[in-house]
Please model this.
Amino acid sequence: MSSTFTTHANGPHTCAKRTLQRLRREAGYRSAKEFAAVLGMPESTYARYERAEEGPGCGIPLASAWAIADALGVSIDLVVGREDIDAPRPIKLDDRAHALTIDGRRMLSDYMDYLESRDAADARARR
Model:
């Protein structure tokens, strides 16, 4: 189950300097200090990243950008501003399946088995 779906944009584009702050808050981190502690970096360093302009001149070192992207579950391009925060984002089917109850996952698995067998039967019939 590795199919990908896309969400729709949530509204107008956010100010460039607010992307990193928005991503942090959406991930459940209320303050820059809290998130900096999770990353193991000084609060002042992380806060500077949030205030920086986006793009090539953002000043976030590659290792830090990777750590931030991994902690937030987003792409490095989104962290440094090369990707629009309001652009549609892919959602993996696995993520949706894990959000279901055990019964829901079992029903989804049964349905996927049915679809696979139907596709196999259709392929045999076309031969």
